[in-house]
Amino acid sequence: MIVAGIDIGSTACKAVILVKDTIAGYAIGPATTNPAKNASDIYEQALKNAGLSNKAADYVVGTGYGRAKVPFADENVSELTCHGRGSAFVNPAIRTVLDIGGQDTKSIRIDDEGFLVDYAMNDKCAAGTGRFLEAMARTLGLTLTQMEEHSANASHAAVITSMCSVFAESEVINLINDGVEIGQIVRGLHEAMVGRVAALARRVGVEEQVIVTGGVAKSSSVLNALAAKIGVTPITLPKDIDPQIIGALGAAVCASEKGSS
User: Fold this and answer.
1) How far apart are CA 158 and CA 175, in angstroms?
2) What distance lies between CA 243 and its chain's CA centroid?
3) Rounded to whole angstroms, how far apart are CA atoms 202 and 14?
4) Secondary structure of residue 219 in the 3-state scheme
5) Are 26 and 242 in contact, with CB atoms under 8 Å apart?
6) What is the three-class DSSP state of 236?
7) Structure-derived torsion over alpha carbons of residues 233, 217, 127, 155, reported in degrees to the nearest 10
8) What is residue 187's three-state secondary structure?
9) Domains of the chain (ranges plus CATH)?
10) DSSP class of residue 159?
């Protein structure tokens, strides 16, 4: 059986193809103002990457902010459920999922089958999300990769007291004018950001093992700061796949179960 999970997020679209409960292919692309086209395009790309461009999935599940806009989905499932199921697929020992996405951050506690036990979300502002890092990168005139390099080489972190993008930008400008090294500023931003994520994690209870998903999971500086903040080392990352596809993977897992029932 061929199944697919389509995750239409705020900043990125992801699709995963499962064939007999094995990841056959996946794709990641930018989100636009046309989620239906995004879904179709990323689905076709994932099928192509799986060597199945001339076939269609037997069952498709949509998830993410734009899940209702996936025109060919057989069913829609919440991203909370999908991140839990996808994380358990990657590692059945996972109990805490921290999804740091472009627009929100989720702390999810799951059972031994990946089903939701409890959760907390930061979905009212950009604090602790990829959008926050992107805004700070623009203020500093750096790419996200350059921010990572500066943070890794910093001797210590500057103190950033605000997680509001507007106020944090003012703080960053003041620190620059005071002659504070860029690396120290970036490291301070990373540590301020993970402080918000750690607070969400504590609301649902941090249970080892912990996995971080979403685009921000690609930042080793953020992961190191987060591990220190919540006292869990090491933090799990998906092996051999992009951490950004875990929601789509969970949707594909749900599709596999639904399609075979």
Assistant:
1) 8
2) 7
3) 28
4) coil
5) yes
6) strand
7) 60
8) helix
9) 1-91+239-261 (3.30.420.40), 94-235 (3.30.420.40)
10) P
Enter the tokens of residue 135.
């805004």
185, pLDDT greater than 70: yes
**From the CA atom positions of the chain, what is the Rg in Å?**
19
Q: What's CA 17's distance to the chain center, in Å?
A: 18
Altogether, the residues listed in the chain come to a count of 261
- Which two tokens mark 170? 């003012």
Q: Which of 217, 247, 215, 248 is nearest to 234 (CA)?
A: 217
Phi, psi of 146 (to 5 degrees): -65, -40
Which CA distances in Å does 212 have to 90, 150, 197?
12, 22, 11
Task: State the DSSP code for 20.
Answer: T
Q: 143: helix, coil or strand?
A: coil
Residues 6 or more apart in contact with residue 188 via CB below 8 angstroms: 157, 158, 159, 160, 175
Burial degree of 240 (CB within 10 A; 0-12, 13-18, 19+):
exposed
Q: Look at the alpha carbons of 170, 174, 180, 182 in this order and tell me if their dihedral is positive or negative.
A: positive
Nearest CA among 219, 248, 252 for reference residue 100: 219
Instruction: Mention every residue, 6+ apart, whose C-beta is less than 8 A from residue 227.
Output: 233, 234, 235
E-strand stretches of 71-129? 75-76, 96-100, 105-110, 116-122
Terminal CA-CA length for the chain: 12
Tens-digit pLDDT profile for residues 105-159: 999 999 989 999 999 988 666 667 788 888 889 999 999 889 999 999 999 999 9
In degrees to the nearest 10, what's the CA dihedral of 9, 160, 189, 129? -10
The whole-model pTM stands at 0.91
The H or E element containing residue 17 is: strand 12-19
